[in-house]
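2 proteins. here.
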Amino acid sequence: MDKRIKRAKINALSTLLAQLVSTAVGVVIPWIMIAHFGSEAYGATTSIASFLAYISLFEGGIGRVARGALYKPLALGDEEQISRIYLAIKRFFSIIGVAFMGYTLILAVFYYDIADVTVFDRKYVFALVLVIALSKFAEYMWGISNVTLLNAHQRQYVVNVVAMLSNILNLLAITLLVTAGSGILWVKLASSMVFLLKPFLFTIYIKRHYHIRKTKTRAVLKNKTTGIAQHVAYVLQNSTASLILTVCADLKYVAVYSVYHLVIFSLRNIVTAFTGGMEALFGDMIAQEEHEQLKGTYEKYKLLLTVLVIAFFGTAAILIVPFVMLYTKGVADANYEQPLFAILVVMAEALNCLIWPCFNLTIAGNRLRESQAGAYGEAIITIAVSLALVFWNPLLGVAIGALAGALFKCIFYTAFSGKKILRSSVTHLMINTVVVGVVMVLISVVGMAVIKNFNLYNYYRWIIAGICTFPIVTGIGLLTGSLLYPASLKNVVNNLFSK
């Protein structure tokens, strides 16, 4: 047990460091791109990446299914079964990689007309799509199968180290090329070439640390489609807004959405990084039928996430608009001041983070098939609401769609995991979630009203505002967490004092 907890802590720390690096790099790169190439050009690259992400729908959630299938043989040290599952994953994603090549060529031909691009000509757009797709193709052919095995075996720290290295090299490459006056096509080509390094390093690590035996047996993952609903919902959650804005609105709206989404997505990654590797720990506990330990670990997980969600997303709700206005200062080709849109997308992402433990439990407990109704419901609601409202107001339409989908997801997975896996009171779990939601709304409304009285016209004043805001909001998070999970808090405090 101590070894598993130690690995979970190492994974969490490495994930946090990786996400901090990713956030820092992710904030700098769009600023460089928008400043040098304009909102429409940056919006085009973001939109192309979102369109390319839709090929992953064909993955059918096989990664989640594979992780669920790997937990038991990894816990038992069954190398034969591990090899069979690994090779099945590799074969599957090689096929997806070939399909991805075909999809990329079709998108390259038609994207110019779909997005009504004005900043580039047709040939340039064709080449841009191919260049952006390059690193994703390498992931399918050589990367995803290795990452799946490493994550299931609580070796997420390996993935994180490689990710940090790639992100730093990517920033250096982009900065040098932009400074040298290179076009956006060459900048994206250099970025793709850097990320080709990742699957190469993963392959070396797997060969050195795992005894993968070749086998002719193919019937390993009998229920390949059990994770398709959850996978569809995940892809739509991250890509639908850009697609709908591209088709139904304008690429400048895509740029505005992408800047806000960049900040919020980075916060989500940082928050979930604190609990990195917990899915693998849950899976090991479920495989060994350690129910009481599972419930205790889940409660601590929720306590930590409650505090983090309120602290980070509460602060973001207050300060994100001033930050974006400073970030895009001097950019006049799009309106980046969108306070209501900001609040809605912050709330949606906060709910997605808050429900993360319940979603992890469905994967760890291999309950993807039973919970697929929730994933399909989330996808349908997100798309339907977004399409219904996008012509009324493009940005608010997709934001309300995202929030509606997140609310449904939160209700469904809380009820499902509480009843089917934790065997806890669903009402109690629901009340805790509602309390956090109410606290977030109050923080957002009051905080935005207060911050209007301050003129945050430079980064120095914004940082001072953040230094003052974050401790207050964190204190509210700690108070909320202590009221909702007093036993877990007591246990954590006792462990700290005993050490």
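next one coming up
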Amino acid sequence: MNELENNIKQFMGSPVQIRPMAKEDMKGISVYFREAYTIYNLELLNEKMLLIEPKEVDEIRILQMKKQLDTLTNVFGRKCVLLLQELPAYMRSRLIEKRINFIIPDKQFYLPDLLINLKNQEIKDKDRHRKSTLIPAAQFLLLYHLLHSRDAWQLEKQTFKDIAIQTGYTQTTITQAVEDLEKHKMIDVIGTKEKQIHFSLSPKALWKSTQIEKRLTNPVLKRVYVDAKPANTKLLAANASAMPEYSDMNPGSQEYYAIAKKVFYDLEKKNILKNPNPVEGKYCIEVWKYDPIRLATPYQLKKGVVDPLSLYLCLQDTKDERMEMALYQMINDMPW
């Protein structure tokens, strides 16, 4: 929240205060709202509002969300502002059409209740970069194909429905991911009624092309430090903790683990995490945009580590020479 406060202050040139809403103040709303959103008190331009962050943003339904925000406004007597990390342009247009207040850090502040609609001109280059990269579900499918190209179960031989079942995504999300891969000319869609996908290049050539064209991004959404590993939760070693499995590099003192964002928010909702914070702790939990467990091969699951390609994407911008050598070794050893 400190980072967000600084972002808003820099973006708008106005002081801002953001504080988590106390549990006792949330007694007036249903369990659904407490599970679906993280709610903060927001004070901006001397106006007291609610900052509402959806815990699941894959399938936002604008009309439904507007009704829910109106309900929160009626309960608390404050206008609501949606906090979103990213959102396609057409979805932002729909929010604007419905005059829904929203903030996308570093990108856009649309607050019609405060007569504010600001766009960061410096973000245009970032927008172009985002358009050149795959959406998380499409990146998942691509990496799954690269990692499991020798398995009996092949993405290229499956219907969209079967792919959804295997990967844990909805059929709608799979359709969007396929459209994104097709838009980037990585696949061809074959068939009419029961469609299938066909990748245009060999796995090694496909990976190389994504690196040259910078199509893939870091899967880590955020990092949260905790004092204890959550019980009864499958964790995969990540970051520097996973590198010894793929290279000669020794692990560091900090332990890193990866989990899917849906799993993390469920742990957060159930208050299972011990002293979660963004600064320090015995364990660092990397919250991934896609599920590292569903992506990993049986061998990687047995070893308890994330897949090497996602690991590379997490660490590719490192300036540490030892890490760079280890990453090179890891990719060079890939059994394409």
